Amino acid sequence: MPLSELNRYRSTAQLTKSDLDHLNFFEMLSQEVSDKFKNDEEEQYVSPYSYLEKAAVLQEARIFNDPQAVRENPRKCCTVIAQLLHLQNTGQTLSSTEATEVFFGVTKLFMSDDASLRRMVYLFIKEVAENCNPDDVIIVTSSLTKDMTCDVDLYRANALRVLTRIVDSAMLGAIERYVKQAVVDSSSQVSSAALVSATHLFQSSPECAAIVKRWISETTEATSSSNEMVQFHAIQLLYQIKAHDRLGVSKLVTQFSQRGSMMSPMAIVLLARYTCKLMSDEINEGRSTGGIQGGSPLVRNGYRFLEASLRHKSELVVFEAARAICNLPSVSSN
Fold first, then answer.
1. 145 shares a domain with 236
2. How many domains does the chain have?
3. pLDDT band at 144; cut points 50, 70, 90
4. How far apart are CA 237 and CA 235, in angstroms?
5. Closest CA to 249 of 225, 228, 270
6. Full residue range of the structural domain in which residue 178 is found
7. Distance CA 228, CA 266 (A)
């Protein structure tokens, strides 16, 4: 109870000594809690990176050139990379010369076997590569390709993500074999990373998109994975590849909605969205007449799939199916 209400209650009620003792106790307790939270609010959080100076951080980044320091103190290297990324993300961008110099220093950190440092190296390369000379970025492709074919799933997945962000269509042709193998890899972490990387490549340029379209058989195989996230990413990539082929999208939706092999709720949500779009286009463009249940086979099968999805055990699927049905054109209130 707030202190103002306690005081008002004290002045208007007929209280015994015991009641007054209880009120005094609660008043003291309420005041202590109020003071505690008041102090917490007054103490504002200050980021440890608030007062970083670019010159000082670049000076500390010279540790990357000392193999012994890198080997003995990988935690210090992680901190310096975090500071460099903070400068990059807060508007204190590195000049082309500074970025190239630091980039070369970071590439020397591949000699370390520390897992945390290696992940920071991947992150830095992905974030800073755009500010560096493309000819300089090519230097790290050999190290990334080596990591992409190693036995450590964590390195393979992260190397895939970074490598596909810095290659062009010419370089993609050289590593295409590795990426296709990764799409159907037994490790769900590697497979999912390869599918996401393929999605980014497909959107990067028409030349890369033409290469990714050749991976359709591997992507279709990935939809049979037992991992829900791999299924989700595989369906997403398949749709992107076939998005401009109405017949291809129709076969995709029909195949996976009727087969019932999709275990991933997120993949089924995508199928519901694609089904809704197909049905809407079919009705709006005049290829289906007679309403939802009396229309073309595509519309009838799509509606059966959406209706069955309303009984799915995942609330995510149920909500998406209901939303899709409500958004269908010419749908009746029944």
1. yes
2. 3
3. confident
4. 6
5. 270
6. 139-244
7. 8
